[in-house]
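explain this:
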Amino acid sequence: MGKPTNRSSIVEQEFFKLELLLTQTANDAERCLKVLKKNLGAYDKRHGLHFLSTSKHFMRNDIRVAQDMITDLRHVAKRIHKSKTPSKSEIVAAHSSMVSTADAMNDLKNAGRIYDQNYDRSDGVADIINNVLGGDNDKTRSNEGMFRDENTKRSSIPKTGDTVEAVVRSTLRDSFCSFSALKSQVSATENAFSPSIATHAKEAVAGVANKLVGDSTTSPTTQDDSM
């Protein structure tokens, strides 16, 4: 009787942690989107953009999708909280919501890249510098431009760092940090709920190792592995 009770307690603890991390990730993601909107607004102001030409307007639908995924994270957390008995369906829902949220946040980076390509701001800072310097640099750049391919042109984006994609990436990096913890907790909860899968795998590996030990007398590393 002791083992089932202990296992049940472990499962409940992991589900409780999962609920907390779902809520924490949702809160972090929501704060991240607020910071992103602020940073996009600063980018638009810096470049003198208004109304329909702004990055904030361009990315509004992608941000809305991410907000919907945040709502779903909270919904799953509440579902786990209200559940009287932990079940596999909650784990599946948590995993699905986690993946959807990750996809939505990654789509923000893609949307930023598309905006940069559509408005072709990759050389903006370099152009300003060269225009100020003037002189023969214009001729040189004109001649070089005949041989520049699209990849070379886009490679200047990371150099300037002043692109929408760069804004999105830096914002996610600095303001959305709890996702890896949620990913680990989903796995931990699944393992606690279904230990038989992991146990069978370990037993299979141990069985193979024991066979190898029995068949070999010259491999000390095999014996170490079986421990």
In short: The longest helix spans residues 2-46. The CA atoms of residues 73 and 148 lie 46 Å apart. The radius of gyration is 26 Å.
